[in-house]
Amino acid sequence: MSHLDELKEARLKKLRILQKEGVDPYPSRVPRDFSIAEILDKFDEFSGGAKKVSLAGRVMSLRPQGGIAFLNFTDGTGVFQALIKEGEIPDKEFDLFIKTVDIGDFISVTGTLFVTKRGEKTIQASGWMMAAKSLLPLPEKRHGLTDPEERYRLRYLDILMQKDLREMFVRKSKFWEVTRNFLKERGFLEVETPTLEITTGGAEARPFITHHNDFDIDLYLRISIGELWQKRLMAAGFTKTFEIGRVYRNEGTSPEHLQEFTNMEFYWAYANARDGMKLVEELYRTIAKEVYGKTKFSAKGHEFDLDDEWQNVDYVSKTKELTGIDVLTASEEEMEKRLSELKIVYTGATKERFVDTLWKYCRKQISGPAFLVGHPVIIAPLSKRDPQAEGRVEMFQPIIAGSEAGRGYSELNDPIDQRRRFEGQQKLIEAGDEEAMMPDWEFVEMLEHGMPPTCGFGFGERVFSFLENKPVRETQFFPLVRPRG
User: What positions does the domain Aminoacyl-transfer RNA synthetases class-II family profile occupy (predicted)?
Assistant: First the structure.
């Protein structure tokens, strides 16, 4: 029998003691008048023994000393101390507490409030009740969970034991709340679009495939937040829409990439990329100030201040400066040779992949904040061409900490050009490019009916991970882990 099994068996014996005494170890409700945060605010009103209150939470420390026991418990809103004292509660209840309560149990304590000689706000129990008996111990408080995979597998314990981690997830919730409020205050309508699609539009990524039993057809989990659907809403007469939701990409894992994550996309009729850049710059600054109370950050070895002037970085010029390759004129052979010389690992032997990989090498050297502009047509099949620059599109990407932190376009609304570009993507698919965009011919049909000039933009939760200076996996509540054994 393992040590953990022995601990579990000892707790099972305590469970049976409770049951033998007619105590339900898992009642549906226990006395609880206030959260710990609320009672801390109201402490003076209830202290001094005049009024009894009931509090509940998980026991995090337990210090029995003869006829008394001090314990700290938490309900997620705060931590409070309780005193269980022989003679102050019925003898049977005191004995049962000593015999059956462990660290990790959920209990309810009823009693009066006072301040100890050490200045600790405390509830002195006149009664207690088991709320949920734990059968396995919590991690050792000082060291916690040390194995990375176990931390993610037992994430509920990881979060319980780490206050900083809990606070990070509160910030993450606020990150999306600020984003939502920012857009709503500017007249954007929140919408919902399909997560199951016949074709995966709006991004270049390998999708997850599933099967629809009723229709007997294969479908894909979406790889964007309804880009082609939200554009249909522009054609339907809406002028400002956005959606925040989950996307799925069946690709590799890295500090910046996961297979399932949250993104936001907005679409704005009668606006172009330049309008979008102004709005996005304001959005990022608002998030920084309202979530963090600052605009200066350190991430991945970079320092950046979102309050600085955002510079425009030209895709073609910067790539040529740092690699010597003009991606508009160089041949595939020249680009492939240069990638080899730079010892850059890449997947897919197409011109689009070569161009994109050369840029990804360059972006790591830019701290930002900046906007990447002047993208080649070949890597942006949904973006409007730039009439002032041959072979370029009206696209923009925020750059912070050496990475792209979003993507926006003056959306392509020319159905003839869109059809040609989809045909080009189809050829890439046939050549084996698993990240090429699937053509959506019904989307082209929509464009033939007409869509107004539109700016679209999207960013994901990795922006939050940059601001936290953590790998994106660390900033998810429950990242995917391999099953045991």
Answer: 180-483
